[in-house]
């Protein structure tokens, strides 16, 4: 039913609703840390502000995200959604604190960026210069 609603209910809408209703409710457990809805809302707001101010991101601009599966990935996605920027997901895996495996490299990476028409890429510090 929600899919056919006009306007459609997005994942961001659902997140914001839950963050308002239950801000201190646990949303994410990563290693030894628990993040609440309030934590992720605050962190995504800060990230959205920084991305808009520092990079000049505007709604509609596609951003490629080359981050490992960790909490920063989630609040980056939320920040981009709040800004209205589509996200092209380029996934990496982390073991412990070290970047171990990135699924997209070389020609496949170039193709993914061209297909998404991404003009900005956000990457983890471990990907700098590689």
UniProtKB/TrEMBL annotation:
- Domain AMP-dependent synthetase/ligase stretches: 16-122
Keyword Ligase carried by entry: yes
Q: Which GO terms describe its molecular function?
A: long-chain fatty acid transmembrane transporter activity; long-chain fatty acid-CoA ligase activity
Q: Which GO terms describe its cellular component?
A: endoplasmic reticulum membrane; plasma membrane
Enumerate the catalysed reactions.
a very long-chain fatty acid + ATP + CoA = a very long-chain fatty acyl-CoA + AMP + diphosphate; tetracosanoate + ATP + CoA = tetracosanoyl-CoA + AMP + diphosphate
Family the UniProt entry places it in: Belongs to the ATP-dependent AMP-binding enzyme family.
Protein name listed in UniProt: Long-chain-fatty-acid--CoA ligase
Native organism is Dicaeum eximium
Gene assigned in the entry: Slc27a2_2
């Amino acid at each position: 039913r929600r899919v056919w609603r006009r306007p459609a209910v997005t994942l961001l809408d659902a997140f914001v609703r839950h963050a308002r209703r239950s801000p201190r409710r646990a949303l994410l457990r990563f290693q030894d840390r628990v993040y609440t809805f309030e934590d992720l809302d605050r962190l995504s707001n800060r990230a959205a502000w920084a991305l808009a101010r520092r990079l000049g991101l505007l709604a509609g601009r596609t951003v490629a995200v080359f981050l490992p599966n960790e909490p920063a990935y989630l609040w980056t996605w939320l920040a981009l959604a709040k800004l209205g920027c589509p996200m092209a997901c380029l996934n990496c895996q982390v073991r412990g604190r070290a970047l171990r495996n990135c699924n997209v490299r070389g020609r496949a990476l170039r193709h993914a960026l061209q297909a998404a028409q991404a003009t900005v890429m956000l990457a983890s510090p471990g990907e700098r210069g590689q």
